[in-house]
Design a protein that fits this description.
The complex is a heterodimer of chains A (474) and B (614). Chain A has 19 helices and 3 strands. Helices cover 70% and strands 3% of the residues of chain A. Classes of the chains: A mainly alpha (474), B alpha+beta (614). The interface between A and B is large, with 48 and 37 residues. The complex binds zinc ion.
Chain lengths: 474, 614
């Protein structure tokens, strides 16, 4: 059967349309932020809005080029591009230009390029290529481990720049793995770990330990279904804790509740293990194993937070969790952003009319906080419309991904969806104070050549793959 | 077929869920909750503080002593900054380019709409030059404040000076903000709440570039700055000026009080400084220099220096002894060039003897007052020495000694009249009696008083038995009455009928035959005075004199301390008499000019202690 290939009729024009609406809308907001009557001339390179026009033109040209290339090329180029982007990330550590304390830029004459923006594209291409290979069972442990290997190379290098926000983006690729068969319990485990992670930062390790021990006891009871065994477990631990309390009272052991409880736990563990062997009780080993794994996890979270995260990152997380107040620091950004968005009201203040935007009360408003301008000048109506449009695009892309016959195209499509979704959720969530301030751009809206071109390439490669979905089965 | 295809549903639902959460959050922020709309308004308006001028300070005759001069701070508004010629600005301001860069960086990075001065208190020349070219430097603007200016450069200690608030003051009183000024010492400090005024507020609308676009809501929330309240001092500026002229060579102090009101007419602490030195840009540098000066010109001797009262204290002891009945005015004691008893010897100078009370005061006989004090402390009417001593101390305190008087100046000292427990500790309970502490008889020993207390004591005698707490402020604009302490009479404990013997003795000391202070004698005015010598363990003794005049209906009471002045009559008496003459007659009689000349041209020196004074 002959397959007719008419690229233009098979292109998803709805996605292209939403893409164009978003970049035009984004430009209007950038113009509003940076516009000033005293500006030298409209097309001067000193103006961000003029620069963004050049970036948009370049992106459109890039999109057209992408459509002119045979779609099989993208599967072919996946690994070389991946290797190239990793090399670029290594290069940026050496020849990179430091901006705001992070080495993220490679300067080619007057043009600055952010390799981390392109690395996302390369990573999802490579992942799609790998998972779509022959005889790859996507839900087998080896595949998952290899996938994680592909995913984690770039973020580790980006973390070293350091660019915390761009690093976190890669966690979105879990959505792709989930769609391709990542076992649900791993996802639940990861979510539980995220909960413990936040819990460790919010309450003391002692309370976390109590929670973990209680959870282990309940898990044991549910699995073992024997009241007598359960009561013995509880009794032994309680007696040991009481002995510890008495010893502490007479100052025979250090006055540290965590150590006391942990010590009692270790001693009772020995008892449980001996009893498990002698009385042949089931489920003791796995429960104990997981309990200790989680305790280790709590410790490593604590370590990562205090030793690996930078001070300002720690503060952002702490402010977000309500553990710290700092009205003139990071909280200032969030607060000004809330004021800007809140002052928009239902209808907004109108284009070029937002005083918050005008007076630049919100820092980084053309880039990370561009959504403030949307909220202030276009009101609830405008921002709601924007969210509908964005979510619409994402759902549309899922629909497109699902209709692919090629596994490569589908996986890549989900990669695009997950990366765009993560950026959207974190960027808007940060502007409306639901997430910590993590500096990542809003795709198609934020000022910046690298991010606009990288996201353009990302989505148009997918649309190109989609346009030939009937022609090839890659 | 793809076994996980149904997972697309969960992914889709998850994305929709986030969209839904965002929508509700936006609905809340933008439509339901109105707090952020109000905050936005406060963001697009700017609060400007208008600083009030401090209250003016007048003397008792309504001569303006302290007023204000404008001063300009240079500030930077980060929103308005545009490209400018930084070299030119640096030249005008005489700062290096790095300082300017740092300031701009700081303002942009940290201060946002808070606007601290870049340069405080521009010199008038710099201000003039910059004002002309201000259009060249957008984002730089002036903020006007006022500084003190002195019509009479006098009374530095009394007026006090103004400094910048520190964090401890801001914590205590929310009125103050960083960079505000407040009265650090003197009247500026005690009456700070009246002098400081109220800051005004102007809310300005600001546009794209942060430039003013008129008032916010037609100035509904604006308030004008309210000038501080004017204050009238009790000080006589001319008397103060004359006193400072007389004291310019000396260390020590002069305190003059109007007895009937407790109003301080002059208060000099020497050495003094020109109050203009502690104003404006030069303040810090001058302050450091004054602080380092070994003569401690910042220290107010009049209210804070502790000296032995010397022989002026004999009059107090006499009043107590009369009250206790251990002597009568007619009691007489012999003096053989001093008082000699078991273990005690106290020299006296040569004079006729024996003496009765009035003559004893006139001649300042040490022996007479040693006898008197012995009788007072070893009084058989009391069971123990301690009881007798406490009765004596109680009456001494009623003259205003041993406690701060409560003058309206900061950090007044109490002086020192030991409690009996002090001697118990020193000698052991029951192991001390009159002879042990006989130095107190002639105002030496452990007793310490401030010059203010001595002047107040002179006023008590002038008033025939009471004093009104000395104060330096007569009137505050808009305040009807002064504090009640400055109105009420504090009566001494000894009976007032005895006071005339004291007054007669002091009259004799100045005007009588053999008086110790004959140099203070005026032709037409009867000055009553008492000389003293304050023992100085570090060298030459200090010259002390207390006096009041005229004898009937006294108008001025005075104490003069001249350090290393040796005898009360050498410096204290002449200076006091000149001040009394000046105050009561407005001039110095030609036949007294020589006294003035001598005071203006002499300088006592601190000779090493080589002989005992009495
Ligand atoms: Zn004698």
């Amino acid at each position: 059967m002959r397959r007719s290939i008419n690229i233009l009729t098979n292109t998803d024009w709805l996605s292209v349309f939403i893409y164009l609406v978003l970049i035009v809308f984004g430009w209007l907001n950038i113009y509003s932020v940076n516009f000033s009557e005293t500006d030298p001339s409209f097309f001067s390179l000193e103006n961000r809005y003029a620069m963004q026009i050049y970036f948009i033109i370049a992106s459109v040209i890039l999109a057209i080029i992408i459509f002119l290339i045979d779609s099989r090329f993208y599967s072919f180029i996946a690994y070389p591009l991946y290797v190239f982007s990793v090399l670029m990330l290594l290069a940026v550590m050496v020849i990179g230009k430091e901006v705001n304390g992070a080495k993220s830029w490679i300067m080619l004459g007057p043009i600055g390029i952010q390799p981390s923006e392109f690395a996302k594209l390369a990573t999802i291409l490579a992942l799609a290529r790998f998972l779509s290979g022959y005889n790859v069972k996507t839900n087998s442990p080896q595949t998952i481990l290899k996938s994680l290997g592909i995913i984690f190379f770039a973020p580790v290098l980006i973390m070293l720049q350091p660019d915390f926000g761009s690093t976190l983006v890669y966690s979105a690729i879990l959505i792709v793995l989930y769609r391709e068969g990542l076992p649900g319990w791993i996802l639940i485990l990861l979510l539980f770990m995220a909960g413990i992670f936040l819990g460790t930062l919010m309450v003391s390790k002692f309370i976390i330990l109590i929670i973990l021990i209680s959870a282990a006891a309940i898990a044991f009871f549910i699995l073992n279904k024997n009241l007598k065994n359960f009561l013995i477990v509880v009794l032994v631990l309680t007696v040991l804790v009481l002995i510890g309390v008495v010893l502490k009272y007479f100052e025979l052991i250090p006055k540290n509740n965590f150590l006391l409880l942990f010590g009692a736990l270790v001693l009772s563990t020995i008892f449980y293990l001996i009893r498990a062997i002698t009385a042949k009780i089931k489920h003791v080993f796995p429960v104990i194993l997981f309990l200790y794994l989680f305790i280790g996890f709590v410790y490593s979270v604590d370590f990562v937070f205090n030793n690996i995260l930078q001070k300002h990152q720690q503060e952002r997380v702490q402010i977000m969790l309500g553990l710290k107040s700092d009205p003139w620091g990071y909280e200032y950004n969030v607060n000004q952003s809330k004021i800007a968005i809140g002052s928009g009201g239902f209808l907004g203040r109108g284009f070029l009319n937002g005083p918050q935007t005008k007076l630049k009360y919100v820092p980084e408003q053309s880039t990370d906080f561009i959504f403030c301008t949307v909220g202030e000048e276009w009101g609830f109506l405008g921002s709601f419309g924007f969210i509908v449009l964005y979510i619409g695009l994402l759902i549309r892309l899922i629909y497109l991904a699902e209709r692919q016959r090629s596994k490569f195209s589908r996986i890549y499509g989900y990669g695009v969806v997950s990366i765009l979704f993560f950026h959207f959720a974190v960027n808007v969530g940060m502007a409306i104070a639901l997430f910590p301030v993590i500096g990542i751009p809003l795709p198609f809206m934020s000022y910046g050549g690298s991010s606009l071109m990288a996201f353009t390439a990302m989505i148009f490669i997918f649309l190109r793959l989609d346009s030939t979905r009937k022609a090839y089965l890659i | 077929m793809d076994q996980f295809a149904n997972r697309k549903i969960y992914v889709g639902i998850f994305i929709l869920l986030i969209g839904l959460i965002f929508t509700f959050r936006l609905l809340y922020l933008q439509v339901i909750d109105s707090t952020y709309k109000l905050s936005a308004e406060s963001n697009s308006r700017r609060l400007e503080i208008v600083y009030p001028a401090r209250g003016l300070i007048y003397d008792r005759n309504n001569l303006l002593i302290v007023h204000n001069q404008p001063s300009y701070d240079l500030k930077i508004s980060p929103f308005e900054l545009e490209a400018f010629d930084s070299t030119e600005l640096c030249e005008i301001l005489n700062v290096d380019i790095q300082t300017l860069r740092d300031a701009i960086y700081r303002v942009k990075k940290y201060e946002r709409e808070r606007r601290n001065p870049f340069i405080k208190q521009l010199s008038p020349e710099t201000f003039g030059k910059l004002k002309e070219k201000q259009y060249k430097f957008p984002g730089f603007y002036f903020s006007e404040r006022t500084l003190r200016k002195y019509n009479y450069e006098i009374a530095s200690h009394l007026l006090g000076y103004i400094g910048e608030v520190d964090s401890s003051i801001i914590k205590k009183d929310s009125y103050y903000e960083l960079g505000d000024y407040y009265g650090v010492s003197g009247v500026e400090s005690t009456y700070e709440n009246f002098l400081k005024g109220e800051k005004g507020r102007r809310y300005k609308l600001i546009d794209v570039r942060g430039k003013e676009q008129g008032t916010y809501r037609e100035g509904r929330y604006d308030s004008d700055a309210e000038m501080g309240k004017n204050i009238t001092l009790t000080i006589d500026a001319e008397l103060q000026q004359y006193a400072e002229k007389l004291m310019k060579n000396f260390e020590g102090s002069v305190v003059a009080i109007e007895p009937s009101t407790g109003e301080v007419l002059a208060l000099v602490s020497a050495p003094f400084y020109n109050p203009s030195l502690l104003v404006g840009r030069v303040r810090q540098e001058n302050y450091e220099a004054l602080k380092k000066d070994s003569l401690e010109p910042l220290f107010n001797n009049a209210t804070m220096a502790l000296y032995p009262p010397g022989s002026t204290f004999k009059t107090a002891n006499a009043l107590v002894a009369l009250q206790e009945g251990v002597i009568r005015p007619t009691s007489s004691f012999g003096c053989t060039l001093g008082y000699y008893a078991r273990g005690v010897s106290m020299k006296c100078h040569s004079h006729k003897q024996p003496l009765e009370l009035v003559e004893a005061i006139t001649n300042s006989c040490n022996a007479y007052f040693a006898h008197t004090y012995k009788r007072t402390i070893d009084n058989q009417n009391f069971e123990t020495t301690e009881d007798a001593y406490n009765a004596w101390r109680d009456m001494i305190l009623s003259f205003g000694f041993g406690e701060p008087l409560g003058i309206d100046l900061p950090s007044e000292k109490a002086g020192f009249i030991p409690k009996s427990s002090y001697y118990d500790r020193y000698y052991g309970k029951g192991y001390w009696k009159a002879h042990t502490i006989i130095s107190n008889a002639i105002g030496q020993g452990e007793i310490l008083t401030t010059p203010l207390q001595i002047a107040n004591f002179a006023a008590t005698i002038a008033n025939r038995g009471y004093y009104i707490t000395p104060h330096v402020v007569k009137d505050i604009e808009g305040v009807d009455t002064l504090s009640r302490e400055f109105m009420q009479k504090n009566w001494m404990k000894p009976d007032t009928s005895y006071i005339n013997y004291i007054i007669d003795g002091m009259d004799g000391a100045v005007n009588g035959e053999g008086g110790t202070a004959h140099i203070a004698h005026l032709k037409d005015i009867v000055i009553c005075g008492k000389t003293g010598t304050a023992q100085n363990p570090h060298g030459t003794d200090h010259s002390v004199f207390m006096a009041f005049a005229p004898k009937e209906n006294p108008r001025i009471a005075i104490s003069v301390y001249v350090e290393y002045g040796e005898w009360g009559a050498t410096y204290g008496a002449p200076i006091a008499s000149l001040l009394i003459e000046k105050y009561l007659t407005d001039t110095i009689a030609p036949n007294r000019k020589w006294v003035e000349t001598r005071m203006l041209n002499s300088k006592p020196t601190n000779k090493k202690e080589d002989e005992k004074k009495y």
